[in-house]
């Protein structure tokens, strides 16, 4: 058994909406260049596996057949289908759209298979995490929802409970909607308040469709939330609800767009904090489900100074070869990144550790992050028989 599988192929770079679009394939190219420059591809426990393009029957486990046909048709003809989100500013049509998006699904489903079959403790698809796609429509740079497909694959293979953890700055609305009334799935999303950021959803009162059964947990944090407060919010909710839910596997989405340098969001969560959260998810996978952990990429549009750092650290975490915050980054990678982008690359992995206060040290009603956390706890914790103030 491998410690971790990394589902990767240059074919994943074909998911490309064209010049000027924020979802630039350079995010992935620079990440894999950094992974290689750091020597992670030679880590003893890491195996790189070439993903396959998911067939329609796999894509259709989470999407309507009519929608899959519409994606194929739009890609072949170049004609938009705005009613299904295809050919919009967020999701322009491109010739390889179906195959490229289906390969993302294939990678995430392959990762799910690897951990469920015991071929790897953990598996990663950094090109995945397309969490906005709905059953019948593209949305927010996402054509097919590979994250939901990975969750569904685990259910189909026999998992009784799967936890989905979304750390992207945007609400994981597509995954939540697909499993809204599915008691075997718990979706957790910490994101910038939907009143201030796309997709405008993810309120703390949104806990799923089940009667007396929570299937969705939403922590909506205010703009300008920093690393310390973000970590406090994650810690105040995620470990408790996951321990109560007791999943057989965890699928997590690690969009890097909560960083203060991201051009599309208003949070200020540094590399170290995002790396810390990935470590927590990793630990919870070992504690709760024998290490069965599928980790995905997601959003993130600071393509030189943030995304490669966060996702290289994620690969290292899954390979049990964690990187040190503040470590210098390889000169050759920095030079290549600057030549490719014309932008200045980061010289080190983050800027130092973050001091934060756990919820157990007390609730501060004057702090907007504490009010946001308490709103979630009030809606969610009683459904698990927990006290929102004390547990």
UniProtKB/TrEMBL annotation:
The keyword Transferase does not apply. Residues 21-316 form the Histone deacetylase domain. SUPFAM superfamilies: Arginase/deacetylase (SSF52768). Pathway: Ketone degradation; acetoin degradation. Keywords: Acetoin catabolism. It holds the Pfam family Hist_deacetyl. The keyword ATP-binding does not apply. Belongs to the histone deacetylase family. This is Acetoin utilization protein AcuC. It comes from Isoptericola haloaureus.
């Amino acid at each position: 058994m491998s410690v971790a599988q990394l589902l990767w192929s240059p074919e994943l770079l074909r998911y490309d909406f064209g010049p000027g679009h924020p979802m630039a394939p350079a995010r992935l190219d620079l990440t894999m260049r950094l992974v290689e420059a750091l020597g992670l591809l030679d880590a003893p426990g890491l195996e790189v596996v070439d993903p396959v393009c998911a067939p329609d029957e796999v894509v259709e486990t989470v999407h309507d057949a009519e929608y899959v046909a519409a994606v194929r048709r739009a890609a072949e003809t170049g004609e938009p289908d705005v009613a299904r989100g295809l050919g919009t500013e967020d999701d322009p049509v491109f010739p390889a759209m179906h195959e490229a998006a289906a390969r993302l699904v294939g990678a995430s489903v392959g990762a799910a298979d690897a951990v469920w079959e015991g071929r790897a403790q953990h598996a990663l698809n950094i090109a995945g995490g397309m969490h906005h796609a709905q059953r019948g429509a593209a949305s927010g740079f996402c054509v097919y929802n590979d994250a939901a497909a990975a969750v569904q694959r685990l259910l189909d293979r026999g998992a009784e409970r799967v936890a989905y953890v979304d750390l992207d700055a945007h609400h994981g609305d597509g995954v939540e909607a697909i499993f809204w009334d599915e008691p075997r799935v718990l979706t957790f999303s910490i994101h910038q308040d939907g009143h201030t950021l796309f997709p405008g959803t993810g309120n703390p009162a949104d806990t799923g469709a089940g009667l007396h059964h929570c299937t969705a947990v939403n922590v909506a944090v205010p703009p300008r939330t920093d690393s310390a407060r973000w970590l406090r919010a994650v810690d105040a909710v995620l470990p408790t609800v996951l321990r109560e839910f007791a999943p057989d596997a965890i699928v997590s989405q690690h969009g890097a767009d909560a960083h203060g340098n991201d051009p599309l969001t208003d949070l200020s969560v540094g590399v170290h904090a995002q790396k810390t959260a990935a470590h927590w998810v990793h630990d919870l996978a070992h504690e709760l489900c024998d290490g069965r952990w599928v980790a995905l990429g997601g959003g993130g549009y600071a393509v030189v100074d943030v995304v490669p750092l966060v996702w290289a650290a994620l690969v290292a975490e899954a390979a049990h070869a964690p990187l040190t915050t503040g470590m210098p980054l390889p000169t050759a990678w920095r030079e290549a990144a600057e030549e490719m982008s014309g932008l200045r690359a980061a010289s080190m992995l983050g800027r130092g550790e973050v001091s934060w206060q756990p919820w157990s040290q007390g609730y501060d009603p004057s702090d907007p992050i504490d009010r946001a956390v308490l709103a979630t706890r009030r809606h969610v914790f009683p459904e698990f028989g927990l006290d929102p103030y004390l547990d």
